[in-house]
Amino acid sequence: MGKLVFFTIIGLLIYWFVKSRQTNETQEDMPPEAIEDMVCCSYCGVHLPKSESVSAEEKFFCSDEHCHQFLDTTE
Hints:
- Helices cover about 50% and strands about 15% of the residues.
- The chain is an alpha+beta fold.
- It has 2 domains: about 1-30; about 40-75, no CATH class.
- Strands 1-2 form a two-stranded antiparallel sheet. Strands 3-4 form a two-stranded antiparallel sheet.
- A hairpin with a 2-residue loop joins strand 3 (about 55) and strand 4 (about 60).
- The radius of gyration is 27 Å and the shape is rod-shaped.
């Protein structure tokens, strides 16, 4: 009975070791995700990805509404 427990534990340790090595290899093979620039809304200060922002007069905004409100107050 003691030998059965011993070999079961050894088998589980080997399985765990092999599984952890496979996980590390797949994570290394994955390309890093593209890092996108973040911008700050000139009206409310919210930070958002540059691709999701609205730009006008070299300023960035989180929505068209904030863009129009900012431009109306500066005129």
